[in-house]
Each structure stands twice: as C-alpha cells, then as structure tokens.
Specification:
The complex is a heterodimer of chains A (about 190) and B (about 160). By secondary structure, chain A is α/β, with parallel strands linked by helices. Chain A has two domains: about 5-90, Methylated DNA-protein cysteine methyltransferase domain (Double Stranded RNA Binding Domain), CATH 3.30.160; about 105-185, Arc Repressor Mutant, subunit A (Orthogonal Bundle). Chain A has helices at about 5-15, 55-65, 75-90, 105-120, 125-135, 140-150, 175-185; strands spanning about 25-30, 35-40, 45-50, 70, 125, 160. Chain B is mostly helical and about 160 residues long. Chain B has one domain. Chain B is about 70% helix and about 0% strand. Chain B contains seven helices and no strands. The longest helix of chain B has 25 residues, at about 55-80. At the A-B interface, helix 1, helix 2 and strand 4 of A face helix 1 and helix 2 of B.
Chain lengths: ~190, ~160
C-alpha cells in the first residue's frame, strides 16, 4: 500500500517549489532497461542501472548532497524527455546539465568533464588517449577507475571510452549495454 | 553536512505514508486528511536536515502529522470566530502548546490518554498500562476524545 499518486505528486511538486528538495528522482523505461535518474539543484547527480539497488543508490545520494529526496516524474519531465529523445532517435545528442558532486577526486572529475565536453556521439577514445588529454598520459588505469565510478553514465559518456587493446572493455552497466549504446550512436569498435 | 545519516526522505513516505494518511483522517476528518498530510510532510521536510538523530522517525512523522492536524483545526476555528489572520504556522518542535490548548477543556483522564497516544506515540497496550485500565478502555477513551474534539469544530 502506498499513497495515491495524485497526493504523492502534489507533495513532491510543492517540496520542489518551496525549495525543500535536495534531489528529485524518477524511473525511466529505456531500451537498455529502467534507469533511475536523480537530479539535484545543479543537474543530474546520479543515473542508476536496473541491477543497482535503489535503496543503496538513494542512500548514497542522501549522504552526498542531502537527505531531502523526493520522487516525481512531473518535476523531471524535461530530463525524461531529453533521455527518451536520445534513445528514440539515432544521432540525437544528449546535453543535460549534470553535477559531479558524488565524484570523490578532482582527477576523476577532470577526466569525466573532459570526456563529456570533447567526445561526442559516434566518437570513441581510448583510456590512454583520454588520460593524455587531461595531461596525465600514464594514467590510463586511473581514467578507467574514473569511468568505472562515473555517477552519471550515458550523460557523461563513459561508454565511449575503450581499451587500447581493442574490444569494448568493461562498463558499469555491463559490456552488452556498452555495445548497444555505441551501436546506437553509430560508433565503430575494433576487435 | 551533519554527521547524522538520515535515510532519503521519500523512503519514509513510501514506508509510512498510508498509515499517516489514516492517522491524519482520523484526527482531521476524512475530507481534510490529504491536505493535512501534505502540509505535515512539507513541515517534516523543512525540519528534516535539522534532526539530531535518525531514530524513531516513524514516531516523529506521527507527531508532526498530529500537530499539523491540530493547527489546521485551530486555524479553521479562528477563521470562524475572528477576523484575525492565522499566525505563522508553528514548527513541529513546538507542537505541545497548541495541543495542550486544544485538549485543555477535556477531563483530566482523557487529556492523559490523548497525550500518551499522540505526544508520546504509545501503542494502546502501553497506554493501558500507564493509565491502569484495559487496552479496550484506553482505545475507547482516545476515540471518544477525538469524537468530542471533532464535534467542537473539526468537520468530519
């Protein structure tokens, strides 16, 4: 048993309107499964794959940016529409505001920011090349960690980062999803 | 950030929302329950980051809902009796005064039962042992008192 949805919606919207929500979340059905999207004041802070525990994920957000977290599809309509458009149309780029507050180190934040700003849909980059772009050519492994702990996959496109040895390598959402996203964007993968 | 680790607020709404709505309707009447609960949860949200610990959150939400229901009741009664604009809504921490005001005219034993139920948030068996009566009698005392309060002005 839960409250009627009109009441939940009204409470969540009032909370957002009155500036009482640290974050709002929504569940969005996509071709790669139902994603949990959590948005704070400055943008999306977390995107979760279906395999992740929702409780753990939301607790992580609560600890990171604050516990006043509410659910609302309506308040995140713009974000939902942008993600849906990305999945529906090939070649549709995804440009949503995001917030890397949940990322623990400046190095990782720099790697993710550069990846987002410089590697567009259809393009790919190797871990080593991305490391070089942020001025640490030997830090391919550390860039791998930054991607593995990317709190906002898809929006910050860690699926476009590949091992120099070929193949798609690993992915937080599993290699199959990485292949799907790359194919959807028309990117070519060696090996 | 405070050191207290509070759960995401919506997990409390998911877990306790339905029983809080029942509670709000019981005090404020069927028609006002949803408004009272919405207001109560917004008040709770406002106070949430200031909580000093993460224990008894369900009981805390019950108290906030009770206070909000009583404040709604007082605001409505004021609208009927005077032209005075309603004063600033009180923060959940200060619920005791309005509660005491409201139940002040009731018999002593009834007041005690209401306080145990809604301020201390005790279950009826605990109320019974505190009052030295049966669980049935404790339940009856509380429900009779709520009916009395309602006939004094809360539209059912």
């Amino acid at each position: 048993m839960t409250l009627p949805s009109h009441l939940l919606d009204a409470i969540a919207s009032a909370a957002v309107r009155e500036g009482l929500a640290d974050a709002v979340y929504t569940r969005l059905r996509t071709p790669i499964g139902t994603l949990l999207v959590v948005q704070g004041e400055h943008g999306v802070v977390r995107v979760g794959f279906p395999e992740e525990s929702e409780d753990v994920l939301l607790a992580q957000v609560a600890a990171g940016i604050g516990p006043r977290i509410v659910a609302s599809d309506r308040e995140l309509a713009v974000t939902r529409d942008a993600l849906s458009a990305y999945f529906e149309d090939e070649g549709e780029s995804l440009d949503l505001p995001f917030d890397l507050s949940l990322v623990r180190s400046d190095f990782r934040r720099a790697a993710l920011k550069t990846l987002h700003d410089e590697v567009g849909p259809g393009a790919v980059v190797t871990y080593g090349a991305l490391a070089a772009r942020i001025g640490h050519p030997k830090a391919a492994r550390a860039v791998g960690s930054a991607c593995a702990t990317n709190p906002v996959p898809i929006i910050v496109p860690c699926h476009r980062v590949l091992p120099g040895s070929g193949g798609v390598g690993s992915y937080g959402g599993g290699p199959a999803r990485k292949r799907l996203l790359l194919a959807h964007e028309g990117a070519t993968v060696r090996g | 950030m405070s050191k207290v680790v509070l759960p995401p607020f919506w997990s409390l709404v998911d877990a306790h929302g339905d029983e809080l709505l029942v509670h709000a309707r019981r005090i404020a009447g069927e028609a006002n329950g949803e408004d009272v609960l919405q207001d109560a949860l917004l008040r709770a949200l406002r106070a949430y980051p200031r909580l000093r610990h993460a224990e008894h959150l369900r009981a805390w939400l019950y108290r906030v809902t009770t206070t909000t229901a009583l404040d709604h009741h007082r605001a409505r009664r004021r609208e009927i009796l005077t032209d005075k604009p309603p004063e600033q809504v009180s923060e959940p921490e200060y619920y005791d005064a309005s509660f005491d005001d409201l139940i002040g005219d009731l018999p002593e034993t009834t007041q005690a039962a209401l306080r145990l139920r809604f301020v201390e948030d005790l279950e009826y068996d605990r109320i019974a042992s505190r009052l030295g009566c049966s669980t049935v009698a404790a339940r009856q005392r509380v429900s009779t008192a709520i009916r009395t309060l309602r006939t004094q002005g809360i539209p059912a």
